[in-house]
Amino acid sequence: MPAIDHPARRLAILLLALSALPARADATMGVHGMVLFGGHAGLYASHLPMFHAPHDVQAVLRVHFVDPRLDAAVRARLDGKTALWTLDPERFALGRLAPGAARPLAAFRADVVQGHFEQGGAVRYRAAGLVVDEVLLYRPLAGDAPPPASATYLPVGRFLVKRIDGRPDVDHIVRLRRPASGPVEVARTGGMPDTAALARRVPLDGTVYESGADLQ
Fold first, then answer.
1. Which domain holds residue 183?
2. What is the 3 state secondary structure string of 27-45?
3. pLDDT, tens digit, for every residue of 78-101?
4. Per the domain annotation, does 18 fall within a domain?
5. Are residues 195 and 109 both part of a single domain?
């Protein structure tokens, strides 16, 4: 006598088949290097983006170090300066920083590097724990989008971070002598932001980071 094809039996077989499939890899998993900047008033980390996975997101975080002594030491070293510092973090899924993420990234470990972590920078603190206090910006990037006529800079404490809008573009972070009251727009010249116009618009105190090598 043939077995009865009961709906519950069919569902059980389907669930078993699905459980045997390998878990889908997160397309945003990787080592997501960041620029570290700020000072006593705030500490920030800006992901170094590219126009391909898993790095095709512009993200800016407000962070602090788990160790209060290390937190105070790093803030003191960065405060009032524009020298480049970067983070070389452990692997994590960048999508966990997205609004509404199922498992938001609350903390991660990273080597703290004076200079660029991929360009000869010196590791000053290894495997330091950082807490993500707030995700200030999370923008997926479209590699096929042309740059708009103007460039927009977003205020982050006493800094401006250029919003990456199209291809080609530039990752640009500047320090101000006093905080900006809101976003700043400048024209583009040859597709790139007019930095001379930016200097006329806001009280620049120096450049923390500027590179378009990974955004061509």
1. 142-211
2. CCEECCCEEEEEECCEEEE
3. 999 999 999 999 999 999 999 999
4. no
5. no
